[in-house]
Amino acid sequence: MTTPHARVQRHFADLEGAGVMKDIESRLAPLGPEQRPLPAALPHRPAQSGERLALLEGLAGPLPALRGQAPQPGAEELQGNIENFVGMAQIPLGVAGPLRIRGVWANGDFYVPLATSEGALVASYSRGARLAGLAGGVTCVSLGAWVQRAPGFIFAKALDAARFAAWAGGQFDAFHAAAATRTRHGELLQVSPHVEGNHVHLVLSYSTAEAAGQNMVTLCTQAVCEDILARSPFRPSAWFLEANMSGDKKATTQSLLNTRGRKVVAEALIPSALVEQVLHTSVDRMCEYWRMSFTGGAQSGSVGVSGHVANGLAALFLATGQDAACVAEAAIGVTRLEVGPGGGLYAALTLPNLIVGSVGGGTRLPTAAECLRLLGCVGKGGADRLAEVAAALCLCGELSIIGALCAGDFAAAHASLGRGGGGARP
After folding, report:
1. CB atoms within 10 A of CB 50
2. In terms of DSSP bridges, do strands 138-149 and 93-103 run parallel, antiparallel, or are they unpaired?
3. CB 232 within 8 A of CB 164
4. Helices 283-300 and 382-407 sit at what angle, rounded to 10 degrees?
5. Higher per-residue confidence, 257 vs 376
6. Which residues are within 8 A (CB) of 307 and not within 5 positions of it... i.e. 6 or more apart?
7. Confidence (pLDDT) at 144
8. How far apart are CA 100 and CA 140, in angstroms?
9. How many angstroms separate the CA atoms of 309 and 335, rounded?
10. Number of other CB atoms surrounding residue 43 within 10 Å
11. Residues with catalytic function
């Protein structure tokens, strides 16, 4: 998964400026229970929801919206989030964890809110989090953040398209200035023209600070296009603000290779004894499963190969007010398992398209704001923190589901937890 050299340099310069790179080796080193005990497990019986909330409020302060004690927002408060408002959809929300993360931005123990109606999901992610925590936690490394918008321009002939592409490729400073007129937070980082016949797709890449940035990059790109129409010596016969090359809300190989959103690598090394104790299987069997599942994914034409990353992302996105449609692109990535040092299990998950934000959009809704506060994903670095939480969570989900398939527990778990009435037939 390639990343332009200049962007990598800028990303790590930003981390240095934020003080994140100080003592980075110790920050990312696994931290086992013998060095710092894991926080209390959440009471798990259905009737203990009050106890669970009390434990979380001890960490994050009052959570009236999650308790159902805060008034629901009205139509005026929801302007910008919904049209033709009639009421609120309700999705059950549970908490997985504690999840120990040793990340660049997310560093500590997290109780992760997940909104889902799929039984067994929260339990599975909690089991994966417990396994990772006993092994010292999930290490997460952020590798950059940028979001694209790709306007398209139509010309009379291919020669005009090629000339326009050459001209646009040299206009970065002017386009940068135009984009800056529409935002105080984002910034144009790169301009990449692509010629196809008499068409030019102009892929514009932006930083978006703490926002997911979809609206931000749209407004900035509008300003760039207005500048093009005013100054270009090669006038298009037609143009479109987005010509479907940005990868917005879809799985693309371009995004897998180049990143759209925040790119995070998560990894964990699980001793073989813990694999046997928690997952009831072996390291060799899990690696055997991974090899077969990887070839299965390749044969099916999967963009990236993983197990059920979309499950964790969808539940986390709904809980924290993210754009749920972005799961289509955020869930592409690569899960890898292999035998690690000492015969343990090395597990890694690379997610290059985590379109997440801690401000804007649905993050201001009452329950979403409380969930972000519970995760500590507020203020400077909140979006990067959320991206690392997402990657760590999803790696735990991969470990748990692969363990269940290897141990033969997958169907039984869904029969027991995924059906009302203790597994009774529907």
Report:
1. 10
2. parallel
3. yes
4. 110
5. 376
6. 293, 335, 397, 398, 401, 402
7. 87
8. 11
9. 9
10. 14
11. 118, 249, 323, 414
Find the mean pLDDT for residues 73-90: 92
| Beta carbons of 203 and 194 less than 8 angstroms apart | yes
Record the pTM.
0.92
Query: Cα angle vertex 116, ends 96, 138, to 5°?
Result: 30
CA-CA distances (angstroms) from residue 4 to 14, 60, 96, 300, 354?
Answer: 16, 39, 35, 29, 18
Judged against a pLDDT cut of 60, whether residue 413 lies above it is answered with yes
Distance CA 351, CA 264 (A): 5
Taking only the tens place, the pLDDT of each residue in 110-132 is 999 999 999 899 999 999 999 99
What residues contact residue 177 under an 8 Å CB cut-off, 6+ apart?
Answer: none
Please list the residue range(s) of the chain that carry CATH number 3.30.70.420: 151-240
What residue type is assigned to position 115 of the chain? Answer: A
Element (H, E) at 305: none
CATH number of 5-68+89-144+254-423: 3.90.770.10
Distance between CA atoms of residues 325 and 94, nearest Å: 21
pLDDT at residue 403 tops 50:
yes
Separation CA 390–CA 266 (nearest Å): 10
- The sign of the CA dihedral 372, 377, 311, 409 is negative
Structure tokens at 73: 């927002």
**Cis omega before residue 98 (within 30°)?**
yes
Percent of the chain with pLDDT over 70: 92
Q: From residue 423, how far is each of 53, 120, 406, 412, 414 by CA, in Å?
A: 27, 12, 21, 9, 8
Q: Cβ(266)–Cβ(349) under 8 Å? A: yes
Element spanning 346, H or E: strand 345-354
d(CA 382, CA 375): 9
184-203: pLDDT as tens digits: 999 999 999 999 999 999 99
φ/ψ of residue 253, rounded to 5? -65, -30
Q: What is the structure's pLDDT at 423?
A: 43
Q: Which CATH architecture has domain 151-240?
A: 2-Layer Sandwich (3.30)
Kindly report, as residue ranges, where domains of CATH 3.90.770.10 are found in the chain: 5-68+89-144+254-423
